[in-house]
Amino acid sequence: MDLKGKTLNLMKSFIHFLFHNICSISLFSLFFYFSLLFSHDSLAFSCNFDVYVSGRKINCNSNQFERQICEIIKSCPSFHQLDRILRSLYQSQIISDFYLQNSGESTYVNIVPIISFTEVQISGNIPLEIYRRFEELLKTKRFRKVEEVKNLCEDMMMQEGVVNPVCSVSIQNTKVFVEISGSVSFIDDIKLSLDDKSIENEIYAVLLDFKSKRFFPAQVQQIRKSVLILLRDYGYLNPQVDISFNSGTLYCNVKVGRKYVLFIQIDGVEELIDISEDQIREEIINNFSGNFSQYSVKLFIENFLKTHKIHHPQVYVSEVEIDEQISNVKVVIKLPKMFYLDEFRIDGLKALDEDDIKYYIGAKERNIITVFYPKYGLYQEDQIDAFVLRIKEFARLKGFFDFKIKDFKKDVSGDSLKIKVSVEEGERAIIDNFYIYNFPQKVSDDIELPETPVFYDKDFINELRSELEKLLRDYGFEDFDIVVYENWRTKKLVDVTFVYTGDKSENLVWYIFANSRTDTRLVKDISEVEVGDKLRNSIVESVYDNLSGTRYFDYIDVKPYTISADYVPQNSVSPRRYSILVINLQEGKLNEFEVSGGISSVEGVRGSFEFTRRNIFYWGLDFSAGIRSSYWVFPFGREMGLTFLGFHSEFVRRKLVEKFDVSLSFSPKYESTFLYNIQKPLVLSLNISRDVSFFRIMNSFSFELRELTSWPGFSIIPESKSLRNLFFVSQGISFKKSGFSGILRNDVFLSQKISDKIELSSEFYDLREFWGIGAVFSIGRIFVSDIFYVPLEHRFFLGGFRGPRGYREMSVYSDIVPELRNKSSNKVLIMTEIFSPKLYFLRSYVFFDVGSVFYDSQNPFFYKGVGPGVFMDTPFGSFRFELGYGIDRKIFMIHFSFGLNRFTL
Question: Distance between CA 566 and CA 573 in Å, rounded?
Answer without folding.
Answer: 13
